[in-house]
Amino acid sequence: FLRKIFEGINSLEFQPSLDVTAMISEEGERVPFLRSFNPKDSQGSVERWLIECEAAMRESLKHELRRSFDAYASVERSDWVVQWPGQVVLAVDCMYWTKEVADAIGGGVLPNYTEQLTEELMKVVNKVRGQLTKLERKTLSALIVVDVHARDVAAELARAGVQSETDFEWMSQLRYMWEGGDVSVRMINAQIYYGYEYLGNGGRLVITPLTDRCYRTLMGALHLSLGGAPEGPAGTGKTETTKDLAK
Q1: For residue 16, how many other CB atoms are within 10 A of its CB?
Q2: Do 171 and 113 sit in the same domain of this protein?
C-alpha cells in the first residue's frame, strides 16, 4: 500500500514502541528520519500518519542533501560517493557540476575543466572495479551515466566557444542549483523546485541529444503550467524519459 503512494519507499523501520525511524528502498538502502513519528498518535487516521510520513521523508532528504553538499568539498570524491544515499549523491553531484561549469565559463578555462571531468570519471570507473557492496555499485553505476553526460556537455560547450553564462548553449542545459536553502532545477527560462521525494537507488537513463530536447519541451511546459504528451513507437523510452526527468 505504501509503495502506491511513495514509489521509492519499500518499507518503514518500526521500533518496538511503533516509532517510525527510517525508510528503506526496494534495493535495501536505509535513510534515517530526522525526526521519528508514531502512527498511534494519529488515533487510527491512516491519512494523518501518512501525511506525517511524507513530511518526515521530505525533511530528512533535504537534511541529507544539505549535509552532503557541505561535505563534498572536504572529502575525496571517490570516497564521498559511497557515504550518502544514491539519490543525494546524484543531486549534489549535479549541483556542483553546474557551479563548476559556470565558474569555468567565467574564467575561460572550460577545456581544462573538461579534462578534469574525464579524470574524475575514470576515478569512479576504477572504484567500480574494486570491492563494493551491491548498493554502492548501483550508486556508482548511476553516477557514471550522469558523469558521462556531464563531461560530454562540457566538451560540447568548449567546442562551441561558450564564454558567457547567458549563452543559449549553456542556458539550455538542465542545471541544478542550491539557492536560499532549497534545491532548484533550471532549463532555459524554466525553474522548478526540487520535491525531496525519496526515489530509492535505481538506475539512470542514458541521456542522448533527443532526451535533452524532450527535457527542454517538458520543462518549458511545466513552467507554463501546461502538460506534455511524448509521442512515438512502443518501446522507444517515452515513459522512462519522463520518469528520469522527474529524478
Answers
A1: 5
A2: yes
Q: Which three cell numbers stand for residue 96?
A: 556542483
Q: Name the packing angle between helices 86-107 and 110-128 (round to 10°).
A: 160
Answer whether residue 44 shows pLDDT above 80.
no
pLDDT tens-digit readout, 59-109: 999 999 999 999 998 888 888 999 999 999 999 999 999 999 999 999 989
pTM, whole model, 2 decimals? 0.90
User: Do residue 63 and residue 99 come from a single domain?
Assistant: no
Tell me: do 182 and 193 sit in the same domain: yes
Cα–Cα nearest to 142, from 199, 82, 78, 202: 202
Beta strands in the chain, from DSSP E residues, in sequence order: 11-14, 20-24, 30-37, 175-179, 182-187, 190-193
Domain of 29 in residue numbering reads as 2-72
Per-residue pLDDT, 103? 94
Q: Is 73 exposed, middle or buried (0-12, 13-18, 19+ CB in 10 A)?
A: exposed
The verdict on 89 and 17 lying in the same domain is: no
Total domains in the chain come to 3
Q: Are residues 152 and 63 part of one domain?
A: no
Residue 236, SS3 per DSSP: coil
Residues ≥6 apart with Cβ < 8 Å to 213: none
Cα dihedral 21→4→224→215 (10° resolution)? 90
57, 72, 87: which is the final residue of a domain? 72
Q: What is the DSSP string of 97-129?
A: HHHHHHHHHHHT-HHHHHHHHHHHHHHHHHHHT
